Structure formats: C-alpha cells, structure tokens
Amino acid sequence: MLDCFHSRPALRAHGEAKGRARVSEFLCILAGGGGTRLWPLSRVHRPKQLLALAGQHTLIQDTVDRLLPVVAAERILVVTGRSHADELRAQVPCIPAANFLVEPAQRGTAAALALAALAVAERDPAGVMASVHADSLILDAEEFGRTLQAALQVAGSGDHLVVMGITPTTPATQLGYIQRGERIGSANGYAVHQVRQFVEKPDRLTAERYLASGEYLWNPGVFAWRAAAFLRRVEVLMPDLWAPLRGAWAERGTGAEAAALERAYARAPAQAVEYGVIERTPNVVVIPARFRWSDIGDWGELLQVLPKDADGNVVRGDHLGIDTHRCLVLGSGRMVVTIGLEDLVVVETPDALLVCPRSRTQEVKQVVELLRTRGRVDLV
Asked: Distance of CA 131 to CAs 153, 218, 321, 360, 361, Å?
C-alpha cells in the first residue's frame, strides 16, 4: 500500500519558474491493460500494473510515486476497468476515490483519454492534462518528471498535441515509432520537434533502417494537451465516440450516470488514440526524452532491463543455480533448481510453470489464447 509519501522533492512548477500564472494541470494514468505476455504471473484478474515486477512496489505504485512531485494527488486521475478498480484504489489510497474513472468495457485508449479529458474539462475548462501508462518501467523518475513538465508547458502554450519519444536502442518490432521533423523550439531544456509520421510495429528490416537513420523515436504512449483542444479533435475526428460519451457525461450527478456510461460504451468504437486522433491531427509535436523506459512487453524485456547477478541472471524467490547463465528465474514459493541452462525464462506460480527460450517470450500470448480455447479459464 502506498500513501502520499515519496522520497523525491517536488519539482518546481514551470509556471512559477517563468513568473506567470499557473496553468491548471492534471495527470491521467491509464490502468486497464491485461499484460498477457507476462503469463503466468500476470492474469486477467491481476494484470501487470498490480504486480511488483521491478522492486518492492507494484507498477501502479511506482507510477503514482513518479507523478506526485509534479502534481498533487487530488489532480491525478486513474482510468481503469471494473475488475481492477477496487485493487487499484487499495494499492494507491492517496488518490481520491472520486478520481478513479471506471470504464464498463475496454474500448481502447481513445475512449479512455476522452473520458479523462471530460473529467479535466469539468474541473477546469482551460485545464491541461498529460497521460501515462500504469504498466511501464521508468528507471529515471526525476528525469521523467522534468520531461513531463516540459510536455505540460508546450501543451499549455497552445492547441498542440504533445507526444514523448524514446531514442531506440534496438530495432524493436513490437513498438510504435515516431518520425521527428524540424525542431521548432524548446521547453524546460528539451527540444521540441514537429512530428512527420507515426509507424506502428514495423518489420525487422524497416526497424533496422529507422534505428540507423536517427530520425525515429519509440512511442511510449505519453501524451499531453489541453483537455478542451483534445475533445474538439475527438468531436471532429471520432463523432461516433464523442456523441455517446458526451451524452453519458451529461448524466453525471443524476444517479443514472452508470447506466448511461454502459450504453455509451456499448455504442463506442474500440480505437487507439494514435489512430483515432493523433495521427489525423496536423499540430502534433514530439519531445525526445532522455529517461530509460520499457513497456515490459514480455519476459525477455524484463530480463534485459533489471539488474543482474554475476552470471547475468535475474532471480526472484528461492533459487539454486548450477552453471546457469543469462536466465530469468521467478519463483513464488517452491525452490527452483536450474542446471546448465542458458538464455531461458522460468516463471513458477502455484498453479502453472512457464519455461521458454528468452528469444521466444513474445509467443507467451499464444499460451493464453490456447488456454481460453481449451476452456482453461481458471489459468488465464
């Protein structure tokens, strides 16, 4: 459980640093993902944002702790689904219960961020918001906070939609890319570039070309904008989302809002915000970030980013290794013994055991699909 204490000092608000009136700022955490590539530890009822994968705190707790130096807990919103809402509230009790926006169904990030933007605009029609994912691993918290302030500053200065970009270190094919264009200015010490295009999950050869060019950045899904500006774009570009969602929001305070939101989500399209809004908007800018980031998309990524022992292993739990190298070993109770293993992932839980080469960890998602097909919903 995480209270409102955090060890890092509050970052100076950029509005105060510039000697002008503060812009009302909010931060939104998207916490509805499933994390099926991290099976058997991540399950439908307990996805990866609720797990302590990188330390003593869970990913949602680490996320909130990174945000508290930027804004007060009262201005942090959490968008999630019904199945996770109670556990999320319990894990981060410093966030007011009213700040949890519970979606009745998954409809992608466009719907989730539109819902958050409605909540921000209701509190402050001129409010600025930034969004982050609850299940990412960010290893430079203070650097992340400074970059987030830069994004808020740019978003508050006009109607720009602001995205962050991560300098790629490998030709990853499971991530989206952003091609940066001309540099148009700076904010809080960070360059600001026009965005030329977004590319989703390129093939290996294309990703290698992107890496060599130096023009492309990974898309970590961190955005900032004026809530009203974003909602105007949703209204124009996604009217089939805007109409039901705006109608449901008008029922707030009547006692009928839950049923109205249920009906709205039944009609709303399922769409990622990049496809639905951002890629179709001309005034999008990107801030190249310097913090270390991973979306922990599979067990191989976790092995890559976490600290390792002298043999290159990442180990949790009771493990005895003989001639074991470059392995991820996660145990939940029983002793795990490995002999003569290299480049493997071993994840043990009370009801399942996963063993696979680290080069094939992206295929774990297929295991979950097969279990569903065979009726083993008790394991998903």
From this structure: 14, 16, 42, 31, 28
CB atoms within 10 A of CB 3: 9
Instruction: Name the residue with higher pLDDT: 268 or 22.
Output: 268
Residue 23 CB neighbour total at 10 angstroms: 18
| pTM, to two decimals | 0.90
Instruction: Classify residue 125 by burial, with Cβ atoms within 10 Å: 0-12, 13-18, 19+.
Output: exposed
Domains of the chain: 14-294 (3.90.550.10), 299-379 (no CATH)
Residues 95 and 57 sit within 8 Å (Cβ to Cβ) = no
CB-facing half-sphere around the CA of 55: CA atoms within 13 A? 11
**What count of Cα atoms within 13 Å lies in the side-chain half-sphere of residue 326?**
8
Q: DSSP code of 46? A: B
Q: How far apart are the first and last CA of the chain?
A: 25
pLDDT in tens, 124-183: 999 999 999 999 999 899 999 999 999 999 999 999 999 999 999 999 998 999 999 999
Collapsing DSSP to helix, strand or coil, 166 comes out as strand
Mean pLDDT, residues 15-34 taken together:
71
Helix, strand or coil, per DSSP, at residue 277: coil
Q: How far is Cα 198 from Cα 332, in angstroms, rounded to an integer? A: 40
What are the DSSP calls for 58-78, one per residue? Answer: -HHHHHHHHHTTTS-GGGEEE
Share above pLDDT 70 across residues of the chain, in percent, rounded to a whole number: 93
| DSSP states of 85-118 | HHHHHHH-TTS-GGGEEEESS--HHHHHHHHHHH
Per-residue pLDDT tens over the stretch 235-280: 999 999 999 999 999 998 888 889 999 999 999 999 999 999 999 9
